């Protein structure tokens, strides 16, 4: 892995699409959620002003910017409201992509997830904070890992669970992954893998990072890539990368 500092004009020559993860990349990690019976409270994070400017500028320079996240569409639309004309949103771990008001669904998980969700909702534990509203995958926020959740999901061969330190994502193996979203998006945009650059920070970004022409990791312990950046509390990874790209192309 090379340091992001070492990225040069040569690396960006054929790049047309920039793919960004959300949590830990565009906004800090962590979701505040509280569920009590039928009441659900969830805090929306907003994208920092500096990143808005950088994304608009890259768009003006001809790049397609894609936000690829495990979050739901309604939430991404709120978080990125001010830049919706300049980005596409791939959501729920590659299940679908929103482009200028049009939704492209990449996977149908309805039949496979219905029964397991019913079982998961019956699990009683003080460590379960709540089910994040999702259309195609299941996300359960927990204070810690919960064995009974893992056991229920493991009964289904076609399903995965992914623990990211604050929540489980549950979905269809090899169908609801970020790379599925990326592969569908490049078909829609009529470009190739080699024309893409992707930035992620966590285990669920691995396949997406590997498929991209140029890959960048914001957490080299969790994710290997062509380039990495050291963890910094002052500057979010997306801000660092987008500034670097603009610095190179100008
Ligand atoms: Mg992340």
Describe the structure.
30% of the residues lie in helices and 26% in strands. It is of the alpha/beta class and 250 residues long. The protein has helices at residues 9-12, 49-60, 73-79, 110-121, 147-154, 178-189, 206-211, 237-249, and strands at residues 2-3, 17-20, 33-36, 39-42, 64-68, 87-91, 96-99, 102-105, 128-132, 138-142, 159-163, 167-172, 196-200, 214-217, 227-228. The chain is built from 8 helices and 15 strands. The chain is globular, with a radius of gyration of 18 Å. The longest helix has 13 residues, at 237-249. Strand 7 (96-99) and strand 8 (102-105) form a beta hairpin. The strands form 3 sheets. Strands 1-15-14-13-2-5-6-7-8 form a 9-stranded mixed beta sheet, sandwiched between helices. The model has no long low-confidence stretch (mean pLDDT 96). The two termini are 25 Å apart. It folds into 2 domains: 2-107 and 176-249, 3-Layer(aba) Sandwich (Rossmann fold); 110-172, Hypothetical Protein Ta0175, Chain: A, domain 2 (Alpha-Beta Complex), CATH 3.90.1070. The structure holds magnesium ion. Magnesium ion (MG) is lined by residues 21, 23-25, 201-202.
The kinds of small molecule bound in this structure are: magnesium ion
Oligomer: single chain
* Whole-number mean pLDDT: 96
Structural class: alpha/beta
| N/C terminus separation | 25 Å
CATH class of the largest domain: Alpha Beta
Helix content: 25-40%
| H-E string | EHEEEHEHEEEHEEHEEHEHEEH
């Amino acid at each position: 892995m090379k340091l992001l500092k070492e990225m040069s004009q040569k690396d960006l020559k054929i790049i047309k699409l920039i793919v960004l993860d959300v949590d830990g990349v565009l906004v800090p990690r962590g979701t505040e959620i509280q569920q009590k019976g039928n009441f659900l409270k969830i805090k929306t994070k907003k994208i920092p002003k500096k990143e808005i400017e950088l994304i608009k500028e890259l768009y003006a320079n001809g790049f397609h910017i894609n936000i690829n996240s495990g979050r739901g569409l309604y939430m991404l639309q709120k978080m990125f409201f001010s830049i919706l004309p300049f980005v596409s949103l791939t959501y729920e771990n590659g299940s679908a992509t929103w482009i200028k008001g049009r939704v492209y669904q990449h996977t149908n998980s309805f039949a496979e997830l219905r029964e397991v969700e019913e079982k998961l909702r019956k699990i009683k534990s003080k460590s379960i904070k709540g089910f994040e509203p999702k259309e195609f995958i299941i996300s359960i926020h927990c204070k810690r890992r919960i064995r009974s959740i893992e056991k229920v999901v493991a009964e289904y061969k076609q399903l995965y669970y992914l623990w990211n330190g604050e929540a489980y994502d549950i979905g269809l193996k090899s169908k609801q992954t970020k790379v599925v979203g990326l592969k569908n998006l490049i078909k829609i945009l009529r470009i190739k893998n080699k024309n893409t650059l992707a930035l992620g920070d966590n285990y669920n970004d691995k396949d997406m990072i590997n498929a991209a022409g140029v890959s960048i990791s914001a957490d080299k312990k969790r994710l290997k890539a062509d380039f990495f950046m050291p963890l910094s509390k002052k500057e979010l990874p997306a801000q660092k990368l987008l500034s670097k790209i603009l610095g190179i192309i100008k």
